[in-house]
Amino acid sequence: MPDRARPVVREDRGVSDAPALSVVVPAYDEAEVLPDFAARLRAVLDALAGDGRLDGYEVLVVDDGSRDATPVVLARLRREWPQLRVVRLRANAGHQAALSAGLRRARGRLGVLTMDADLQDPPEVLPDVLAATADADVVYAVRGDRSVDSALKRTTASAFYRLVRRLGLGAPAQAGDFRWMSRAAVDVVLGLPEQHRVLRLVVPALGFDAATVRYVRGARGAGRTKYPVHRMLRLSLDAITGSSTAPLRLASLFGLGGGALTFLLLLYALVSFLFDSTVPGWTSTVAIVAGVGTLQLLCLGILGEYVGRLYVQAQGRPAYLVASDTGEEGGGPP
Ligand code: UDP
Ligand code: MG
């Protein structure tokens, strides 16, 4: 299978000295939790590297324009932890943009793991995640137990995943951004021209072989959540409009519904007119208002369909991805 030839391909390009794994961690005002996070992550990664399960790693913390002591804390940690790399963004660009920045810069030869800095994604799950990478291009760490999250967070999150499923976007439920992606998968995601990608819907849409590892969501180590309700709403809107043009169809649906209503209204207006119980001009006014409204909605709907197609085109996501081709060198399953 072509994917299994990944390391060889990378070596051809002269980057064989790159570490096997990059861990990308977006951090925004996380000074309080970072020392703990670094200690726990380092213990796990050093153990994996120590017994040969991991051929080198780098940890890439993307400081998303923090205004607290995060840069200072990171600089201090870096002095003792050579594998720690810090990328600082000029301004707060948001969680998803920080993830994209990290993915773009990650050198991981075999793959990239993304996780939160606040210890809600426990580093101790890493060995399980890495064990699952053997026969998958994407490994989702799925939150089996979210009892530490607030009731509001849990209800909104499950509503979001239900809606996503309804729209036919095959994202695994409760898979956030705690995820491992093979180098091949990362390269495909980076190759998309899309700027504001919401990875948790983009990655599943690409149809890579995936595995899941369940874990218990930890409590935030320290500090406060950076996702107040308006940010969650914004993320959901970005996610859905970024992966589905269904909302654009609403105008068409309203137009059709409006058409049916108009028809009934016209019947009613006509009957009233025939039985002479109307003020002069009422029937025609109702007919015109209802008819024009329906026509406008229908036209908007048609426009929406075309805007939708343009949008999909502009996103440039591949219509398909070939998993293997027996005609190619290396071959694949027959
Ligand atoms: N984060 C970020 N930029 C932001 C908001 C959040 O890099 O603008 C990071 C944050 O530091 C954390 C991760 O994204 O590592 C998830 O954020 P948080 O834990 O606040 O969200 P929650 O778990 O409450 O949904
Ligand atoms: Mg969190």
List keywords for this structure.
334 residues, alpha/beta, Spore Coat Polysaccharide Biosynthesis Protein SpsA, Chain A, 2 domains, 11 helices, 14% strand, disordered N terminus, binds uridine-5'-diphosphate, binds magnesium ion
Summarize the structure.
This protein has 11 helices and 7 strands. The chain starts with 5 loop residues before the first helix and ends in a 19-residue tail after the last helix.
Task: Provide the fold topology.
Blueprint: H1 6-12, E1 21-27, H2 34-50, E2 57-63, H3 70-80, E3 84-88, H4 95-105, E4 111-114, H5 126-131, E5 138-145, H6 151-166, E6 175-182, H7 183-191, H8 199-205, E7 210-216, H9 229-243, H10 246-274, H11 282-315
Parallel strand pairs: 1-2, 1-4, 2-3, 5-7
Antiparallel strand pairs: 4-6, 5-6
Helix pairs in contact: 8-9, 10-11
The protein binds uridine-5'-diphosphate and magnesium ion.
Mind explaining what this structure looks like?
The protein is of the alpha/beta class and 334 residues long. The chain has two domains: 7-226 and 317-331, Spore Coat Polysaccharide Biosynthesis Protein SpsA, Chain A, CATH 3.90.550.10; 246-315. 49% of the residues lie in helices and 14% in strands. Strands 3-2-1-4-6-5-7 form a seven-stranded mixed β-sheet, sandwiched between helices. The radius of gyration is 26 Å and the shape is elongated. Bound molecules: uridine-5'-diphosphate and magnesium ion (MG). Uridine-5'-diphosphate binds next to strand 1 and helix 4. Uridine-5'-diphosphate (UDP) is lined by residues 26-28, 30, 64, 92, 94-95, 98, 116-118, 120, 225-227.
